[in-house]
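B., you asked whether I could sanity-check this one before it goes into the benchmark set. Here's the sequence:
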Amino acid sequence: MSQAQMDVAKLNDAVREEAHQVQAAVAEVKKVIVGQRVLIDRMMVALLCRGHLLVEGVPGLAKTLAVKTLSQALDLQFSRIQFTPDLLPADLIGTLVYSPKTGEFSARKGPVFANLLLADEINRAPAKVQSALLESMQERQVTLGDTTHPLPDPFLVFATQNPIEQEGTYPLPEAQVDRFLLKVRVDYPRQEEERQILDRMISGEAPAVGRVLGRDAIRSLCARAREVYLDERIRDYIVAIVNATRRPKDVGLPDLAHLVSFGASPRATLAFSEAARAVAFLHGRGYVVPEDVKDIAKDVLRHRILLTYEAEAEDVTTETIVDRVLERVEVP
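And here's what the prediction gave me:
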């Protein structure tokens, strides 16, 4: 066995042991949340990558409850803000307050100063508020007056948006959407899951959520997830998938060329790398396999591919494009 193989085997053992800590947090969330396996898994992927998550789904699917429960299990400072058309940037990041006694201005920090910020119905806020949030997401800092304040570590934005009601909404700029590591779509629960939800509500059952991780442990797990081995062939596979969304003709998909206006950006390639490592970590592996890339592909790409009017007329979705690309690009 070569030295590289020995290093990967050692890393694999360490990941397998530490992955149990993450699974313990998942188990705590599942005490409260019935179903929604995809949402819970993607929240953990975003956490391990220190990335931001955009959740799309109709009201009443426990999106807010899931994020709040996760913050309790991880012992993180949680903050929620309801985005509305009359919201101002100061309502999000804070403002300077004048004190008559001292004759000086002091910073009053807004709800963005938290470890886990839930931006509820983010597409209802005007452009100035979205721009203020963008700086927080990208720079992980806030400027009030002439002073820059770093945000807590870790800092994650989990945003929700309603795909149905479009009246009174402000579509997110592509530059901001691209800042989200993942975009996950939440669907209705299965019939048996909904019955379980009903039974819990009628019985008044409210499971207690234990605090299984802290900030130091989270930072350690994030560092370990970044060490997960990414083979050269997997890297080529990721780059090939992203490039196929831009130039589908090059991979033998000429029928998709008129359906895709803009393919995924290079940020998608980086997101693929981070998210695939996190998926492997959640499975207790110290190395990435092609199935990890396929598993996370739609969540990485669905908000980074812009379709043409022809695609909308033909009811073609970004998921359709991703499926066709995954079928065509050769798996290592």
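One thing to flag: The CA atoms of residues 49 and 133 lie 19 Å apart. Otherwise nothing jumped out at me.
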